[in-house]
Amino acid sequence: MFSDTHFHFKYLVRERGLDGADILRKLCARDTFFALDIGTDAGDLSDRLDVMEESFSALSDNEREKALRMIFFSAGIWPSPDEISNRFERIKVLEKQIDDFSSDGRFGKKLVALGEFGLDHHWNANGADHRSEDDFDKRLLDGERELFQMQIELSKKKGLPFLVHSRDAFSDTVDVLENMGYNNGVIHCFSYGKDEARKFLDMGFYIAFGGGVTYTKKSRLDEMTELLRFVPDDMILLETDAPYLAPVPFRGQTNTPVLVEYVYNFIAAARNVSPYELSRTVDENIRRLFFSAC
Question: For strand 111-120 and strand 4-7, is the pairing parallel, antiparallel, or unpaired?
Fold first, then answer.
């Protein structure tokens, strides 16, 4: 129950110092169907497997069996300036990590998607990403698009869906996706409006909502409710993006996949269904999108 289609387990354990086994234990206790650990760096997959394995080692045999059923992985390159500048070398590293995963032996055939990757034009030098518009000249902007395109091509080559990061970059994101013609994936942490959602849905992309929707001001609550009701049952996914975007009432704290329940509660209320019914709907969408790659 209450699957989470996007979180960063390594960040939770290595950067935030949380007990990974405790997180997994709580997910197992509520019989979580699906939990997707997301990649952001070309070479991070093997390290992420090590972190997950360390957390697994502290579980009981029964918990370990449950956790192994629910945990899945993606691999991708988030568009940082360094990765963009070195994109030709980094895409080779990413593909090798993906190929090596199949022979790793620890988690079976559990790589079910590429990503997250895409475009980020949220300029805030004081933010966690330290991105400044002044740093992104035409060379870097063109390189960012090319890195996006290269990873879509790799997704197509591997026959996997992909997870799109698109922040303050709707038009450019659509332009790349339309030019690539492989519309098989998720618009992660959706932060646009109803018209933008319609465009992505018409292209065949799933829409994933996270804890950010719970931050909606009262003056915009009707608009958010309309958006949450607009996305059809067969195209909606829910996520945390943990350790980021903890849902209300935990805003400002470190987020974990355990807190995805509050995202379900908020969105279920907007859609006039029970959280359990929404959970079943999301799980069915997960089966359709990801399990063909298992």
Answer: unpaired
Question: Which residue in 109, 74, 66, 110 sits closest to 208, CA to CA?
Answer: 74
- The maximal CA–CA distance of the chain, rounded, in angstroms, is 53
Give the ranges where 74-169 is alpha helix by DSSP (H): 81-85, 87-101, 138-158
Cis peptide bond upstream of 116, omega within 30: yes
Tell me the pLDDT band of 294, cut-offs 50, 70 and 90: very low
Q: Write down the pTM of the prediction.
A: 0.96
β-partners of residue 209 are: 238
Entry field: residues in the chain: 294
Nearest to 239 by CA among 54, 51, 5: 5
Position 57 scores a pLDDT of 96
Strands 185-187 and 71-75: unpaired
Tell whether the model's pLDDT for residue 292 goes beyond 60. yes
Q: What is the DSSP letter of 137?
A: -
Contact 233, 277 (CB under 8 A): no
In angstroms, rounded to a whole number, what is the distance separating the alpha carbons of residues 269 and 262?
11
Phi (first) and psi of residue 225, to 5 degrees: -60, -40
CA angle 127, 196, 79 (to 5 degrees): 35
CA distance 153 to 74: 15
